[in-house]
Design brief:
This protein is mostly helical. About 70% of the residues lie in helices and about 0% in strands. Helix 1 packs antiparallel against helix 2. The longest helix has about 40 residues.
């Protein structure tokens, strides 16, 4: 069973067990005669209800993440150079520092080593669908802007270092980088294009160690 489906199954089972416990506690409260007993039953009932609420929040979140993944994959198959141009223009750095050394800054490797969970890894790997298109786009841009690949790398690494500097790591860091790469857009075509560029940087560039 995939991790997503396993977690969904576990949450549903947990909710069932909590409802059984809730029924028992409510019956105990009904039969209790001492104030101290009633207070304890009421406290236990509130704790169970709180856990159930938390389980439902996570369960709904899982459903939304699956829907988001579906829309993202669908959009990924439709992106063109137009969307890639739109997102990369917001990433490229206008000047390249003379002391730039890509080999000492492997952001995505650090992300994978810092609690990047299966959900974030799966989202990143969605970018493989358009890996060749991004590569072709970058090659095409070199004809117009010779140092375009380097600017793209510097722009990305600069943002990575800024986010890391404010304490982001793991999934939070990845999500922030994805938001950066698509200009915080809610348009799925641009979200997909930004994700494709992130995958390109992970797979192809000197910024990352293989």
């Amino acid at each position: 069973m995939e991790p997503h489906h396993q977690r969904k199954h576990d949450l549903e089972e947990n909710i069932k067990e909590e409802y059984k416990l809730l029924k028992q506690l409510e019956e105990g409260l009904r039969l209790a005669s001492e104030p101290q007993q009633k207070t304890k039953f009421n406290k236990d009932i509130e704790e169970v209800k709180s856990r159930v609420d938390n389980y439902y929040v996570e369960l709904n979140s899982l459903g939304q993440s699956q829907q988001d993944k579906y829309f993202l994959v669908s959009a990924m198959t439709n992106i063109t150079f137009k969307e890639l141009d739109a997102v990369t223009q917001g990433i490229i750095c206008m000047s390249i520092p003379s002391d730039t050394n890509f080999s000492v800054t492997p952001p995505l490797e650090k992300m994978f080593n810092n609690q990047l969970t299966g959900a974030a890894q799966s989202r990143l790997m969605t970018g493989v669908i358009q890996a060749k298109m991004v590569s072709d786009f970058v090659d095409n841009m070199v004809n117009l802007i010779p140092d375009f690949p380097e600017r793209l790398k510097v722009g990305f690494v600069t943002e990575y270092q800024r986010l890391q500097g404010i304490g982001l790591e793991g999934n939070a860091l990845f999500n922030a980088l994805h938001e950066f790469s698509c200009h915080h857009s809610s348009d799925y075509d641009l979200k997909a294009a930004g994700l494709a560029v992130l995958y390109y940087l992970f797979e192809k560039c000197e910024v990352f160690e293989r």
